[in-house]
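Example A, followed by Example B.
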Amino acid sequence: MNGEVDFAEALRERVAMLAGLPEAALQATWAGTALTPGARTLVATMRAHGAATALVSGGFTWFTERVAAACGVEAHFANVLELADGALTGAVLEPILDRAAKLATLQRLAEDRHLRPAATLAVGDGANDLAMLAGGRARHRLPRQAHRRRRGRQPGRPRRPARPAVRPGLPRRRADGSLSRSSLDARSRSRDRRRHALDQALPTSDDRTLKRLHRPAPHG
């Protein structure tokens, strides 16, 4: 995740340790897996407005196939575990889908759809995603829930009051779970208002303002 070791070599070594593991163990892992809240809504909203979606992972197709089906993602790409007689052989099929392969996949998908890099959106949370994120109109953010778990609540810090399950004024979703155009427009206007307020609060860069900001405080 942090890019401190060679991904392909580390993947081969770790998969080798799974030799003989029954496929039932993968099924048990999947049974205990939960999608990130909002994943289905995100994909449904993108597809409802004409966007193509793909899941590109350094993990394994055994899982990405199921995640893609659960979320409605159109295509998925990942590493392939070798199975024989209902168990893992300890091998992962070549080629390895690594950092460079993620970027190449994004570029190929864009070319197939005649899209400029600026018309693509990539989302990732690891070092292996950095090249892909730089290859388009990228976003890189650690999921909020994972960040909260990692940070933990500071001792003595009061808990925030729980939010109501349904906030008044929010538009309803479509039957397919996507957000409507009016909802997206409303969120866009809200974001623009926040940006405008921030711009108004920030100091200008003319000389008089800079002098005023750096003027030494009076003594005494």
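Example B, a separate protein, is given below in the same form.
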Amino acid sequence: MINYIPGTTPLHRLNGATKVIGFFVMILFIIMTFDIRLMACMFVFSFACIISMKPNWKPIIFAFCFMTIMAGVIGSLLVVLVRPSMGLSRVGGETFIIRWNDRFYLTWELVWYLLVFFVKRLTSLAAALVFIL
């Protein structure tokens, strides 16, 4: 997946310093925001850049599937098990979906936080792939 393939697209013609600066700027925006609308726009932009480079899709699909499983399923499960109050501290409010006991519960705020965190991870992956390929 990570190798140098010369191309004719504008992203292929960027020099290394420009790619590094662009990568840091995109990652900085992703880290700074919890606005899912901005992250969705950045994901679409990154994915459009990946499509414009016409890469080999097999390793990219594998990376996205792997990250979906790791970030989506396992990462979310660990957040729920370790600190289910994470959504309450980030979003505010307390709307319970399921409450098993005082330690383990699921709230709408936690579900929203997990969705935003998952989108952040996938957007970071897409931004990294833009500058790696």
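On Example B: The two ends are 7 Å apart (CA to CA).
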